[in-house]
């Protein structure tokens, strides 16, 4: 559990003159990584170096950037990483073979297959072939099921990051109404499950939702995971809502219209510098845990 | 997909003078079992007899009744069943061994471990050890994950029954607000996931929900899965709501206060004769599918 500076950021939920808090992902991330660095050092004393293997298929430039960022983040806290870059025309079978190799490699503690893979590859089959013990990115159906049923070790990293921010800032969840906008397998669905397990009343909205504004106007906690820039407007929110923006659109823009939502919210994540940096930290954290448990 | 008599039961959702429909589980169940009987006959022509293995541990009388009912239901449509009754003092290891035997028995297509098992047994470990191919009761975390991610073959049977009733009566779901009261791993959580996958906006409520009445008053579809007799009152519902009562409490009483909810609802399942009989039919259906796919 991350600690430090907490009292400065306590949100006085009950009071009417709600304190305005910017939920600083870099701060949360720094605290996580400082803790992880110590744990990595301890593991190294036992001759174990936590190692994340990333697999990139094809030449998507943003994917290349993401994978590079993850590798660099590993290095900064003393972890190892293996970057596997497969050509665009890799077949599903070849990818499965590579994943299986990593499953069986005792030096590898976590495996991340960078989404999306080229269209001719069966991405779901590839995800499913990752060993549950190394599924630090929470992409397998078993990993998802364990998370939703309340005993998962490695939830998908962005949902895990959102929960970590909520814990760091001691935002109360139990009995609160959380509204998640989005239902993707790596974001909207698992974050809904995690909020529910922490006793929020959870509503999951999506493209077919007909009364989004009315539902959002009741939300104590809003998670935006819809993939549309500046989509959620401050006018739609309840005064004092906590807003977590998991969107990351072109031009460093989130799913939330920041300025108008800032006015209404009691606490809000910026983009960039909100959920993003914590997401990578959760990937590191899951890999360190996997190494500790191996 | 079940068909038959549908036009008689179409609900005129838009009109103010909503037709009142009692969602007759026995009728839905009959249609499913007639279809299954034909499929069992076809399988038998290929020398395959669908077979459900049930495992009961200990001497809980209601569990004994449930297991017997399931076995009898198999026989009525020409399926086989194997009833395994283990003593109260069975260890987790002994139970796992038995499950593994059934996993490897090619004559067994579905395995049901009757919940609850005695407290000294690790029930979750036992559930997890059921082969995903034979998990016709949807209890494994992988089965749950596959269901929630939209490609599960065998959702838990009560949630599957609720969806089957909705389909049989052609109740529109897309864009509707479904409120599920309860979040158990075999009922509230998976039915929330199934409704979400069918494009409902889904709110999951539970014991920590602080404003249940206000949320229920907005629900187009209500699923009661809370395990408290006559808990949900008609006063809480929106006029014309569809009410699905998955509760089954002592004295044949559901979770829904039937008389008051009947007044408000456009459609409602009775207890008994609602979700219950369809649940057993879904167990049979999943086992037949497992046999067809083996």
From TrEMBL, chains A, B:
Domain Tetrahydrofolate dehydrogenase/cyclohydrolase catalytic as annotated: residue spans: 23-137
Transmembrane segments: none
Pfam families: THF_DHG_CYH (PF00763), THF_DHG_CYH_C (PF02882)
Substrates-to-products reaction catalysed: (6R)-5,10-methylene-5,6,7,8-tetrahydrofolate + NADP(+) = (6R)-5,10-methenyltetrahydrofolate + NADPH; (6R)-5,10-methenyltetrahydrofolate + H2O = (6R)-10-formyltetrahydrofolate + H(+)
Keyword line: Amino-acid biosynthesis, Histidine biosynthesis, Hydrolase, Methionine biosynthesis, Multifunctional enzyme, NADP, One-carbon metabolism, Oxidoreductase, Purine biosynthesis
Naturally occurring in which organism (per UniProt): Alkalihalobacillus trypoxylicola
Subunit: Homodimer.
Gene3D superfamilies: Leucine Dehydrogenase, chain A, domain 1, NAD(P)-binding Rossmann-like Domain
Pathway recorded for this protein: One-carbon metabolism; tetrahydrofolate interconversion
Underlying gene: folD
GO cellular component, one term: cytosol
Organism domain of life: Bacteria
Classification via HAMAP family: THF_DHG_CYH (MF_01576)
One annotated GO molecular function: methenyltetrahydrofolate cyclohydrolase activity
EC numbers: 1.5.1.5, 3.5.4.9
Family indicated by similarity: Belongs to the tetrahydrofolate dehydrogenase/cyclohydrolase family.
Binding site for NADP(+): 182-184
Occurrences of domain Tetrahydrofolate dehydrogenase/cyclohydrolase NAD(P)-binding (ranges): 156-293
Task performed by this protein: Catalyzes the oxidation of 5,10-methylenetetrahydrofolate to 5,10-methenyltetrahydrofolate and then the hydrolysis of 5,10-methenyltetrahydrofolate to 10-formyltetrahydrofolate.
Protein name, UniProt field: Bifunctional protein FolD
GO BP field: L-histidine biosynthetic process; methionine biosynthetic process; purine nucleotide biosynthetic process; tetrahydrofolate interconversion
């Amino acid at each position: 559990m991350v600690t430090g500076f907490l009292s400065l950021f306590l949100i006085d939920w009950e009071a009417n003159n709600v304190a305005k808090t910017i939920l600083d992902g870099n701060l949360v991330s720094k605290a996580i990584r400082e803790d992880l660095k110590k744990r990595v050092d301890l593991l190294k004393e036992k001759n174990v170096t936590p190692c994340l293997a990333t697999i990139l298929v094809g030449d998507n430039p943003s994917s290349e950037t993401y994978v590079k960022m993850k590798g660099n983040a590993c290095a900064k806290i003393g972890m190892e990483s293996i970057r596997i870059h497969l050509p665009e025309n890799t077949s599903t079978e070849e990818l499965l073979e590579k994943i299986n190799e990593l499953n069986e490699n005792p030096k590898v503690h976590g495996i991340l297959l960078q989404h999306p893979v080229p269209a001719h590859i069966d991405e779901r089959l590839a995800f499913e072939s990752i060993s549950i013990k190394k599924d630090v990115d929470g992409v397998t159906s078993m990993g998802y099921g364990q998370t939703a049923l309340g005993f998962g070790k490695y939830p998908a990293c962005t949902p895990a990051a959102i929960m970590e921010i909520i814990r760091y800032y001691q935002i109360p969840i139990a009995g609160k109404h959380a509204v998640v906008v989005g239902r993707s397998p790596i974001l909207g669905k698992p974050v809904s499950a995690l909020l529910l397990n922490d006793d929020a009343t959870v509503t999951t909205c999506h493209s077919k939702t007909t009364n989004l504004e009315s539902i959002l106007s009741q939300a104590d906690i809003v998670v935006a995971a819809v993939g549309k820039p500046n989509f959620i407007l401050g006018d739609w929110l309840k005064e004092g809502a906590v807003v977590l923006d998991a969107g990351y659109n072109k031009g460093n823009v989130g799913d939330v219209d920041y300025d108008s939502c800032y006015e209404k919210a009691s606490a809000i994540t910026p983009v960039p510098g909100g959920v993003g940096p914590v997401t990578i930290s959760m990937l590191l954290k899951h890999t360190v845990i996997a190494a500790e448990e191996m």
